[in-house]
Amino acid sequence: MSMPCKFERSLLSHEEYETVRLTHHPAIYDVETADLEAMRSRLRTMRDKERTLGRQRRREVRGKAKARGTSFPGTAEHASERKQVFAAALKRVNTELRRLHNLTARTTHVEAARKALALHRAANFAPRPASGATANEGAVPTASSRRRKIVTGAKIGRVSQATRIAQAVRDARAP
Asked: Which residue in 63, 77, 100, 168 has a CA-CA distance of 20 to 30 Å to 94?
């Protein structure tokens, strides 16, 4: 479940909140990809730290572990909520990075498809005619001005095969 920004602000310190604030809707689109990558590792570190603090706190409450150090930091009271804030921010950053990756991949594929289409269209038309007869000896073949058509092997003979199949179906139905 999402948390209001005011609640996040009440749980986090100023530096932590500035990091999390950049992951929200309008601000995340202005952050560069390299900064998002750095933010992702920073948020993972913060989330893991809060997860460790929360687990240790729960183990102490149950009596399974002794206290580590003299005391927890003041933010350990709400370790679970803080971890959820960092996890949600990390999820937003991952989603944005995935979106940017898909966008660049899509544009790359579109450019490659356009280039392939241009090459295909260029191959369908004969190049400019030859310059004509020269002083060479012997007969010179003339280039064809017809359009080059490529028929795939799968299409050759498909009509006669369809006729054979239709005839076989009719023969099978006959009494």
From this structure: 77
Quick check: 28 and 39 in contact, CB under 8 A?
A: no
Q: Of 61, 94, 97, 92, which is closest to residue 76 (Cα–Cα)?
A: 61
Taking the C-alpha atoms of residue 66 and residue 60, their distance in angstroms, rounded to an integer, is: 6
- CA of 43: how far to CAs of 29, 114, 119, in Å? 17, 40, 47
- CA–CA–CA angle 110, 112, 114 (5° rounding): 70
The stretch 16-42 carries a mean pLDDT of 90
pLDDT at 23 over 70: yes
Q: Which residues, 6+ apart, have CB-to-CB distance to 45 below 8 Å?
A: none
d(CA 103, CA 97): 10
Contact predicate 45/83, CB 8 Å: no
